[in-house]
Amino acid sequence: MPRMSIQTFTCSDTFTLESGKRIENLRIAYHTYGSLNERKDNVVWVCHALTGNSDVFEWWPGLFGSTDFFNPKDYFIICANSIGSPYGTTYPLSINPATGQPYYLAFPSFSIRDVAAAHRLLAAHLGIEKIALAIGGSLGGQQVLEWAIMDSSRIDRLVLVATNAIHSPWGIAFNESQRLAISADRTFYANKPNGGAKGLKAARSMALLSYRGYDTYGATQLETSNEKTDGFRASSYQNYQGEKLVKRFNAYSYWFLSKAMDGHNIGRGRADIRDVLRQIKAKTLVIGINSDLLFPITEQKFLTNHIPDAVYAEINSFYGHDGFLIETERITEEISRFLSHNKATQNQLAYQQVS
Ligand SMILES: CC(=O)SCCNC(=O)CCNC(=O)[C@H](O)C(C)(C)COP(=O)(O)OP(=O)(O)OC[C@H]1O[C@@H](n2cnc3c(N)ncnc32)[C@H](O)[C@@H]1OP(=O)(O)O
Ligand SMILES: N[C@@H](CCO)C(=O)O
């Protein structure tokens, strides 16, 4: 089965953002794995989180892969890179056609709805009418939720992992603190590709604290000697993780993507959030991770209580929010149960109709 390398689609029309600002010739990078079946009912659309990319086989192994639950033999898997992300889609270091220079801080602010609108455009370009299942965790889950509201008849099933209907004051405070670190690095305003690199390193170090927890650090970074007064493993880990992100990301993308996360609110310009959730037609599985500090399970229970056809599953993990990327065995079990339950219900309905 074909595993395609990265592909791009360039939008020939002007892409108008929720804010009214525009992006000319929006380029969307994406990966596909497998192919559309004859019944056209095997599309799985994945949305990535804050620092992810369109190669879902790379960042969600154990759930997506040639021998995993979502594999190219059974499914036509599509994952698109978000607006603003540095993995191939138009982003702050792309050339602004109005100036002939990279945008940097002049990049237009975009929202999660804009990212979902870009997914819709790509789906139209690929001739995808029906999505059998759309899945995302964290910021990816926010996109999937928005898409299911904007386009309620296109998506049959949703899997929302460690995500929410509105970004919380707590989540915004984390993001703002990270942006404070970025903006305290004056090189951020130099408009250079590595501008704000030291700030980004500090931001990732802060973000890690919200992605993991006391127990995760205790299990992986505990000292074995009583003698140390400096040079702790946990310090080295924070530095390493910050530098690791700096090597593959940039401060400008991080700034705009984190702002999009802050603005996530499915009620904006619509109605009460509970009423908006009630509009979702897709059969939905909501997964929460019991140790998630950033997107606590109260947020997933809220989604489940207000999406009409939703079930909730909770994963017991000590990884915190990052558990959505790591606990693939448990997530696979829950998705498998969700899909077989739905199949059983369908068969039951078909039987009732003919009998
Ligand atoms: C699979 C990918 O990462 S694809 C890259 C794109 N990334 C994404 O799409 C984002 C989603 N992925 C992620 O956020 C992360 O990869 C996660 C959450 C899935 C896993 O995080 P990781 O950083 O790989 O795992 P973990 O927190 O256990 O850290 C392990 C790393 O820290 C290093 N490390 C651990 N303890 C220490 C320490 N005390 N001092 C220095 N380094 C340390 C390890 O050597 C290892 O290094 P490596 O990544 O170079 O192999
Ligand atoms: N580790 C994830 C967390 C954000 O949900 C990322 O870097 O994208």
TrEMBL record:
Catalytic activity: L-homoserine + acetyl-CoA = O-acetyl-L-homoserine + CoA
GO molecular function, one term: homoserine O-acetyltransferase activity
EC supergroup of this enzyme: transferase
Keyword Cytoplasm among record annotations: yes
Gene Ontology biological process: homoserine metabolic process; methionine biosynthetic process
Keyword Metal-binding: no
EC number: 2.3.1.31
Lineage top rank: taxon: Bacteria
Major location (coarse): cytoplasm
Residues annotated for substrate binding in this entry: 204, 322
Pfam families on file: Abhydrolase_1 (PF00561)
Pathway: Amino-acid biosynthesis; L-methionine biosynthesis via de novo pathway; O-acetyl-L-homoserine from L-homoserine: step 1/1
The AB hydrolase-1 domain, residue ranges: 43-316
Localisation: Cytoplasm
Key words of the record: Acyltransferase, Amino-acid biosynthesis, Cytoplasm, Methionine biosynthesis, Transferase
Family the entry assigns: Belongs to the AB hydrolase superfamily. MetX family.
Quaternary structure and interacting proteins, as annotated: Homodimer.
Protein name: Homoserine O-acetyltransferase
